[in-house]
Description:
Distance between the termini: 59 Å
Number of strands: 0
Number of helices: 10
Order of helices and strands: HHHHHHHHHH
Largest sheet: none
Structural class: mainly alpha
Shape: elongated
Mean pLDDT: 90
Helix content: over 70%
Amino acid sequence: AKNLRLHAGNRFRQALSLDAGNANAWWGMARMCTAPISEIEELDKAEEYLAKAVAADPQHYDALVFLGACRIKLRKYQEAETSRAPALNLRDSPIVRYNLGIALLRQQKPAPALAEFRRAAQGPGAIPAAHLAIVECYVAQKDFLKAREAFQEAQARGAVPDEHGRRILNLINDGLEATR
Length: 180
């Protein structure tokens, strides 16, 4: 695996030496910096390479999606939000909507995050974790009745890991008690 990574990295560098505007080579270099290919994630470097890929080709869907994901991992939520919109303009995707919801929620924007999580939870390719994220949005809005309903729906869909279920339900119940 290490030799394959080295060989691929050399090929990407060779492609970039011939054409510094090769968006696919920049995208490939970014992939080399992240799991599962790399044992140690170098997210700053991946973000740099992905920004170059998008600069070379603003329509490079995979680079836009990956750039947003890197920025979420780096906790650069505003920048993640900014890089998600062009990806959605190219192709609607539940995972892109889910990640956009995360970026919005982490910026204390629960209403638009809720809309994105709802879209991510529906249709082909639906993201099960989006159901639990919907609960988080309602909790952030202090709408604990809706949070409890959404929690029950998420549980029914099997989207609530056991280790989180009790903690989330306690948070909702505490919120309901405080509003009485």
